[in-house]
Amino acid sequence: MTSSYQQQLDAKVERISAQFAEFNPPSLEAFNSPEQNFRMRAEFRIWHTEDDMFYAMFERDADDQKKVIEIKDFPIADQSINALMPVLLDELKAQKILSNRLFEVHFLATLKGEMLVSLVYRCPLNAEWETAAKALSNKLNIKIYGRSRGQRVILTDDYVVEELSVFGRSYQYKQIESSFTQPNAKVCQKMLEWACNAAQHSNKDLLELYCGNGNFTLPLSTRFNRVLATELAKSSVYAAKWNIEKNAIDNIQVARLSAEEFTQAYNGEREFRRLEEAGIDMSSYDFDTVFVDPPRAGIDDETLKLLQRFERIIYISCNPDTLHDNLKTLLQSHKIVQFAMFDQFPYTHHVESGVLLEKI
Q1: Do both 247 and 282 map to the same domain?
Q2: Membrane-crossing residues (predicted)?
Q3: Mean pLDDT across the chain, nearest whole number?
């Protein structure tokens, strides 16, 4: 590693270790990122001048005014994105129907080589645009997806299929353009392996809350008898079910419930037709572990009480502050036995953290 990357990684380790020191956790295990070409997503504004246009981002100057920065390459993005950027821009410039009122360009790449480009416009998209976009899609061998206000034009697909390797086994994931996916695929693979190691092997069942597209669900299913995963977003539930079928995994059920709704159902406070329609008999499960990867806001109080009833909790967090706050409750019943940090976002203050908690 270069000294500059090592220094920023060391600073994160020091910051997170200090923040959680009051809980006396084990030594923090840090998982580094590639120093460049680690992001599988990139989004740019398109800045139009009188006779040209270019990829743009913005920064604040000394007077707190927005300054336009032309982006010719983007070293933190995957190599395939960097290779495509100038080629795509030249093609867009060459056709007025594709460049007119183009507002943003979004790239979504995969480790296996697929590419989805979303072109976002400030004008309606017509048949002429669709014909030109299809021709460009074929010429560059990429997927193109058009968007404008109230309009979505899907030429082939609005997703890519990523392939991640966990302990030598490959998993395929449908990643939908508008849905969340981990942007740093190589660090994501490290997170999946850490979670599987934390889970060890159990002859009981796993409950997963906030499962998204099944990112962790698929490899974790190899460590348990059965898995019940919950997620509220319809697009993510759809992707998770597609991923389960695509990977021929037969011990996972997915319930479209929020964490709060699952807590109510588990406590017998409410009945949900969605469970019945999905053929899920909650009483048939014998859980010993719960896995959570909540949004930045963390976990609500009632769900925290639910987690305290499980023997083991595996908690992945994208926000150290809410993890720290949630641990004040969880450590009343559990202790930290593993503590990890994943550098998903090099050169920013953001980190992903992981803790394995076991009942006292």
Answers
A1: yes
A2: none
A3: 95
Contact call for residues 205 and 282 (beta carbons, < 8 A): no
SS3 165: strand
- Known binding residue 215? Answer is yes
Residue spans of alpha helices (H) in the chain: 3-19, 79-93, 96-99, 127-140, 185-199, 217-220, 234-246, 259-266, 273-277, 301-307, 320-330
The alpha carbon dihedral of 289, 186, 145, 350 has a sign of positive
Q: Among positive and negative, which fits the CA dihedral 231, 235, 236, 237?
A: positive
Among candidate residues 188, 196, 211, 318, the one labeled active-site is 318
pLDDT 10s digits, 181-217: 889 999 999 999 999 999 999 999 999 999 999 999 9
> Is 172 annotated as belonging to a binding site?
no
- Fill in the amino acid letter for 265: A
CATH number at residue 8: 3.40.50.150
Number of compact structural domains in the chain:
2
Backbone angles phi, psi at 339, to 5 degrees: -145, 125
Binding site annotation covers 267? no
Residue 182 marked in a binding site: yes
Residue that has been written with the tokens 């697909």 in this structure = 157
Which of these is catalytic: 114, 208, 261, 352? 352
For the question of residue 211 being annotated catalytic, the response is: no
More confident residue, 59 or 342: 342
Is 114 assigned to a binding site?
Answer: no
* 17 shares a domain with 47: no
The answer to whether 302 is a known catalytic residue is no
Predicted pLDDT at 270: 87
Is the pTM higher than 0.85? The answer reads yes
